[in-house]
Amino acid sequence: MDIERVIAEDLLKIKAVFFRPEEPFTWASGIKSPVYCDNRLTLTAPEVRNDVENGLKTLIETYYPECEVLMGTSTAGIAHAAITAHLMGLPMGYVRSGAKDHGRNNQIEGRLDPGSKVVVVEDLISTGGSAIDTVNVLREAGAEVLGIVSIFTYGMKKGLERIAAAGTENHSLTNFDTIAQVAAECGYIKEADIKRLLAFRDNPSDESWIGGAK
Predict the structure, then answer these.
(1) Model's pTM, two decimal places?
(2) Which among 91, 158, 159, 107 is positioned nearest to 131, based on CA atoms?
(3) pLDDT digits 0-9 by tens, 122-152
(4) How far apart, in whole angstroms, are the C-alpha atoms of residue 11 and residue 7?
């Protein structure tokens, strides 16, 4: 089974990944994007959710067989970490974007013993910021972070470089190139749009792809 293609088809079918090259979305940063991604929608589609969580389980068993704990990113990675941990019989927790300002002021939720071998679960990787922040918090707490698993990666240069610079790695179920190809084959976009989409992926700040420009 080609898991990259299966997950790509799944995400497109439920519009968790939605391409609109003719009417770009605007990110919070102001960047115009031909793609909208909301992997939370996988949670409300049981068949897709099953593919995703079993896929994440397979990634972890393949690349990080010594994993002892799963830690989700807040908030999108939490549910995926919980379900995958359940399938694997492993403990899980999650890392807040910042420490609480009350109670025990936790940033890491769930038990984490120093030296624990941890895999970070993320829903998608773009610039890699939230995943790397999570890795750093876990390392500061004494965990041995084996790496990251995610549902989808854009494969953006900035994200790849940041993950490498942090001394870790990411393995995704599917990627931007595969989803663009499947989207064209299934009629969600035109074949000619693939080049435009990849131009966006290679340099998101360059808007020359908009309107069909090469």
Answers:
(1) 0.93
(2) 159
(3) 999 998 999 999 999 999 999 999 999 999 9
(4) 6
